[in-house]
């Protein structure tokens, strides 16, 4: 009987699971969709039971499809869980998880900036302060939900909580711990007792067991086995943050390799031995070589989310046409957008629909179309959205280049955006890098499966990579690159120019609580 592993990725809008043979052959896939809750402007949360139900549904489907193989391991990666899930002593959730997209902790950010030595915080954690980071969201729970805080026994990242439901064990992987920022010592690879005390977060809320993403947390319990139809005792590996796991899926294991993950959000990252918080990027231990390598990345808060927002709010004609013809509305929009020249005839989109992460770091930043004219059409605006997200990618790449070793002379792109030929050409033209993508359409889930195989000792990290097939998708066009260089100068200058107006509007819409 052939040996196989299961990789699971819990995303912001869906969970995917994949059953993979040890040579990388994908034997079965399953997915479940859902959406985050956004009860107020700049708030974004999800109830952990949504994730558990999606994971278990996917695993049960995989179990039915994979009866002819010997499943040797399961690994779970997940979205960056922000605050983590506050659970009681019986590991029951007490409040929805404030996910990475949530920006409600602006008051806590202000307190940290006024009361904490940010240089010292950066030296310890490799990270800065912003309402993106989990430690500020934890402080919000403490300040605004004291009844929840008083009953909280642990704060668990999404993958750690789901793994507990599968194994009855509690452990946090180093990438998820590091991504919290503020309270994790990036050099010592442990919780920072100093920063926990300074920030007023009790150390008892941080699980003591910190493990590598390939570590076995525990075996599938008898109860979980019965629910899912999988064998009791299957090892379950810790996994990690989805952006890093997707980067690993793309074959990235050495310094200088870099990958852009463009899904609901955008993360561009590379592998490095040290962190430099001064460059405005995010740092966490990488999912392999965890003791010595860091995943250093920057990202836009709303990438694919900007595209989905534009489609749902302004493109009803294309949606209706898609229903009638059976075509994807995005394909209809792209047909028209292909005829729009680079720069969208003078329209620039700022994709700051939930504040913005690096290198802007402003929870009160807001989205904008600048340069509108009666001449412009939906096609212009759609292309401007794709270009705006790609300018955000370049903005992060330029910040990262200041603190990194030489980057490889190609950019690998993973995530939903990789399905679009137009968008991949825009990425090549804006960044100046040839763009490669993965043939297999299961990035983070495939990375999780690969971590499971590593953790189970079934494959080697330095072995021949038969798990992925990289395809060259787009090469930069010199004329288009030159045009985009000029437009990018405008893009980069717009946020500083509009910042005060953005903040004033944030107050008017009630964005500050």
TrEMBL record:
GO annotation, biological process: carbohydrate metabolic process
Record key words, sorted: Kinase, Transferase
Transferase listed as a keyword: yes
UniProt keyword annotation of Nucleus present: no
The Carbohydrate kinase FGGY N-terminal domain, residue ranges: 5-248
Molecular function terms from GO: kinase activity; phosphotransferase activity, alcohol group as acceptor
Gene3D superfamilies: 3.30.420.40
Entry-linked Pfam families: FGGY_C, FGGY_N
Domain of life of the native organism: Bacteria
Domain Carbohydrate kinase FGGY C-terminal residues, every copy: 260-455
SUPFAM superfamilies: Actin-like ATPase domain (SSF53067)
Family as reported in the entry's similarity comment: Belongs to the FGGY kinase family.
Protein name: FGGY-family carbohydrate kinase
Organism of this sequence: Lichenifustis flavocetrariae
């Amino acid at each position: 009987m052939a040996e196989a592993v299961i990789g699971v990725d819990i995303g912001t809008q869906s969970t995917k699971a994949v059953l993979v043979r040890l040579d990388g052959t994908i034997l079965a896939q399953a997915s479940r969709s859902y959406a985050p809750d956004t009860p107020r402007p700049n708030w974004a949360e999800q109830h952990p039971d949504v994730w558990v139900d999606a994971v278990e549904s996917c695993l049960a489907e995989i179990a039915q499809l994979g009866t002819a193989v010997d499943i040797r391991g399961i690994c779970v990666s997940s979205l960056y869980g922000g605050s983590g899930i506050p659970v009681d002593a019986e590991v029951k959730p007490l409040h929805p998880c404030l996910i990475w997209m949530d920006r409600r902790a602006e008051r806590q950010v202000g307190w940290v900036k006024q009361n904490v030595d940010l240089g010292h915080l950066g030296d310890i954690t490799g990270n800065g302060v912003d309402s993106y980071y989990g430690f500020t969201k934890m402080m919000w729970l403490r300040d605004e939900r004291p009844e929840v805080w008083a009953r909280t026994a642990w704060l668990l990242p999404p993958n750690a909580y789901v793994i507990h439901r599968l194994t009855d064990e509690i452990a946090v992987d180093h990438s998820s711990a590091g991504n919290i920022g503020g309270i994790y010592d990036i050099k010592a690879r442990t919780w920072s007792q100093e920063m926990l005390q300074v920030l007023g977060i009790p150390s008892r809320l941080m699980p003591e067991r910190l493990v590598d993403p390939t570590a076995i947390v525990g075996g599938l319990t008898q109860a979980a086995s019965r629910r899912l139809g999988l064998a009791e005792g299957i090892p379950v590996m810790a996994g990690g943050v989805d952006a890093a796991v997707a980067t690993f899926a793309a074959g990235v294991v050495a310094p200088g390799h870099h990958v852009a993950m463009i899904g609901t959000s955008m993360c561009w990252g590379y592998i490095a031995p040290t962190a430099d918080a001064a460059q405005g990027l995010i740092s966490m231990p990488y999912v392999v070589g965890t003791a010595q390598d860091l995943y250093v990345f920057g990202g836009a808060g709303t990438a694919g989310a900007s595209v989905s927002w534009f489609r749902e709010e302004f493109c009803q004609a294309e949606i209706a046409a898609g229903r009638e013809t059976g075509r994807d509305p995005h394909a209809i929009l792209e047909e028209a957008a292909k005829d729009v020249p680079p720069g969208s005839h003078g329209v620039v989109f700022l994709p700051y629909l939930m504040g913005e992460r690096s290198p802007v770091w402003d929870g009160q930043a807001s989205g904008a179309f600048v340069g509108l004219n009666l001449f412009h059409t939906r096609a212009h605006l759609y292309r401007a959205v794709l270009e705006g997200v790609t300018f955000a990618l370049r903005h992060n790449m330029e910040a990262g280049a200041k603190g990194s070793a030489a980057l490889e002379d190609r950019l690998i792109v993973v995530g939903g955006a990789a399905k679009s030929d137009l968008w991949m050409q825009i990425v090549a033209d804006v960044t100046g890098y040839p763009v490669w993508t993965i043939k297999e359409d299961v990035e983070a889930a495939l990375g999780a499966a690969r971590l499971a195989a590593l953790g189970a000792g079934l494959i080697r990290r330095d072995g021949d990579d038969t798990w992925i097939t990289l395809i060259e998708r787009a090469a930069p066009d010199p004329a288009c690159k030159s045009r985009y260089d000029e437009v990018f100068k405008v893009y980069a200058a717009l946020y500083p120019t509009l910042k005060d107006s953005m903040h004033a509007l944030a107050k008017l819409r009630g964005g500050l609580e």
